[in-house]
Amino acid sequence: MQAKCLAEVADVCGGGSGRGGTDEADDDEGYRVTKNIKWCSGTNWEGFASNALGGHVGDPGCLIAPASLDAKKVEAGCESICDASSECQGFTHYAKTGECCFRAEISEMPACNDASCESNKCFEKPRGIEGGSESVFCALLPPELVEGRRAPAEPKLKPEPYPAMPPPGPCKDTVETAFSNASWFDAYAAEVRALRELAPCTDCPEAVDKLEQEAYCGMWWLGSESIAQPIERVYSKHNYRASTWKKVAVDATKGKTCPFKPLVPMENAWVKSCRSDFVKIFGKLDELAVPYYPRSGTELAFVRGGSVSDGDIDIFVDMPQQMLFEELKVLIGGRVHVSGSGMYQETHITKDGSCPLEMHFVFNDWVAGFNPAEPYPPAGADQLCRCKLGDVEIWCAAAGPHRMRMQYGPSWRVPLGIKQMDDPIWCRDHRTHDWCTHGKSVLGALKSKSAVGARGLVDEQALLSLLPGDKWKAARESLAPDMNLAVAQINVMLKL
What we know:
about 500 residues; Beta Polymerase, domain 2; about 30% helix; 16 helices
C-alpha cells in the first residue's frame, strides 16, 4: 500500500488543492519539492541542535544562511538539518533571503500569487529517511486509493512564543546587515525579525501611517515582548478615553513597598527645597485616591537611580486633565496651568523661588498601554507600590524595571544622559535637533573607549566604562544578561 501511495501521489497531490506550483521529486530517495508557494504551513520545528548552514537563527524555527551560500548549498544544508531528527517533516526555503523555516508538521502549501514569493519552495521529507511521515505524502489522497493506509499521526504541537504569521516579521528590512559580523548580531536580528504585525485599532482618531510603523520597528527590542502596540496608537487610544473615564480608587494606606530599589543611590539635592510642594501635591493625589506614578525619565531615576530629573519631573495621573487642573488650582494657585489639547494635553506646575523644579502631569502612559492584555491604568495591588521621593512617600509602578526596558531599550541601566533613546526614528528624521546632535556626540565618544572603535563600533568595554566601581556594581550585574542587545542598541542608534 505504501508503494501505491507513492505511485499515485503525483497525480492526486501534485499542483492540486492546497498546493501551489509544481513538484520536483516524488520518490523515496529525495525530498518532495513544491515550487511557487507562499510557504509550508504547519507547526514550527525548533529542535535543531546544530547549524549546518553556519548562519544565524531568525524567527522561531528558522535559520538564515550566510549570503555567500548559493541556493543549492542552502537547500542541501537544510535537508541535512531536517534529516537529523524524526520530528522535522520538512521546511520552507525562502530563496530571496536565504532562510529555511522548519516544520514539525506540514498541513498545506498556499499558492504564490505575486513576485514576492515566486522563488519559495516547500521541501517535504520522504519516508525513506528516519524522520519521514507517510502523512506528508498521502494526507491529500482519497482513502479508497490507499487501502489500509494508517491514519496520519497527530502533529506534535509546541507552544510558540509569537502569533503565527508568515516569516519573517514586518520589520525584517530594518535589520542593519552591516553588523552581520558582530558577536551580538544574531541576538539583535532575532529581536527585529520577531516584531509582530501592528494590532488593529478601531477607536484611533487617525489612520496608522508609514512613520508609525517605522517608529515601532525602531524600537526593535520589543520583539521578545510579543506585543503589537506602537507609541502613537497607544497615545491616541488612551487619551481619547477621557469621555468614558471612570475613577479607579486606590488606597495609599494599604500600599506595599516597591519590590525594586534604585541600582545606584538617587541623587536628589533639590528635593529638600521642593519638599513642601511634594507633601501638598502627592498628599492631595493620595486623598483623591486615583492611580498615579512617575513616568519616562523620572521613573528611570526611581528604578536606575542617579539624577531624578533634568529640571522637571513627569507624573502620570489617572484623571482627565481639566479635572486635575481644578483640584491643583485650589491647592497651588496661579502656578498651575494646562497646555495642549487632546492626546497632548498636560497640566503643569511652574517652579518658583523655593522649588526650582517644574512638574508635568499627563493622562497617558504608552508603556502601560503597550500590552492590550494588561489592565490600563495599572491600579491593582500587584501593579502599584509605594516608593519615596526624598522622604515623601508616593506611588510607583511595581513593574518599573521591565517598563524601563520596554521604553528605553536594553541599555536603560547605562547613564547616557541623552534624549530619544525611546524613539530612535525621530532622531533619524530630525538630525539637526539639539537632542539628536548631542546624543550622536555622546554615543560617538564611546568609540574611543571601545576595543573595536577603529572599525566605528562601540563594544561592551565602552558601556562598562560608564558603570565604574562599587557604586555601579548592581547596574553591571543587572546589565550582564542584556549586554549583547545593549551594545546592539548603541551601534544601531549611531547608524541611523
